[in-house]
Design goal:
Distance between the termini: 37 Å
CATH architecture of the largest domain: Up-down Bundle
Structural class: alpha+beta
CATH class of the largest domain: Mainly Alpha
Helix content: 55-70%
Order of helices and strands: EHEHEEHHHHHHH
Length: about 220
């Protein structure tokens, strides 16, 4: 009997999607269990797997692991399939750097401010805050500049050698460019725009698109 592989997370979470993209790139079959971290009471059995109540949690048999970057490293080590970590030291360092940049400086402005207020909130009938969008867009520009410089360098984000950097970055960009302001900002960073144009067509992105909730949800 095959060891159960379950991803527990929220369908609209970029971090849940990051893990899904990595699993698809590795061609690993898995089950999904929906957990909404924004609900009033997160199930107790989930809190036993993730004491902070965030998403996602990856379960491989009786082994649970949380924190997206850690999950992706585990997936890379535990399963066969295309290698998602380079062996050359400079490229390996850049993979870790891209993940850290987007987590530390990109997620909040690109996703929680620009995407959430321009796209997600209106989709569920909530009010947007134009100041949040403007502030998020301004903060996003330095992130785009830093990532564009790394893409130009050629160790990562080259559209050919797929790594965990691509998997981690893509779901953030998939949301960011749904806002007209985000799509316009990306166009001014040519290397990064070229990378996204290529990676956004991959099955791992197309098959993990969560869509948007309806106003009735």
């Amino acid at each position: 009997m095959a060891t159960p592989i379950i991803l527990r997370g929220y369908q609209y979470s970029v971090y849940n999607r990051i893990v899904r993209v990595a699993l698809h790139e590795k061609d690993v079959a898995y089950e999904m269990e929906e957990i909404d971290p924004f609900q009033t009471r997160v199930p107790k059995d989930y809190l036993m797997r993730h004491p902070f109540g965030r998403v996602p949690v990856f379960s491989h048999g009786n082994f649970d692991i949380y924190e997206t970057a850690a999950i992706c490293r585990y997936i890379e080590a535990a399963f066969d399939g295309p290698c998602l970590l380079p062996t050359e030291e400079k490229a390996l360092g850049r993979v870790a750097q891209v993940v850290s940049i987007i987590d530390s400086y990109g997620y909040r402005p690109m996703v929680r401010q620009v995407f959430a207020h321009r796209v997600f909130r209106p989709s569920v009938g909530e009010t947007s805050d134009e100041t949040e969008i403007a502030d998020g867009l301004e903060a996003s520009l330095s992130v785009l500049g830093a990532l564009n410089a790394l893409a130009l360098e050629g160790y990562v984000l080259d559209g050919e050698a797929i790594t965990l950097a691509d998997c981690h970055l893509a779901p953030m960009f998939a949301y960011f460019v749904q806002a007209a302001e985000g799509a316009s900002a990306l166009k001014t960073h040519s290397a990064l725009a070229d990378w996204w144009r290529s990676f956004s067509r991959r099955p791992a992105i197309l098959e993990t698109d969560p869509g948007l909730p309806s106003r009735q949800a």
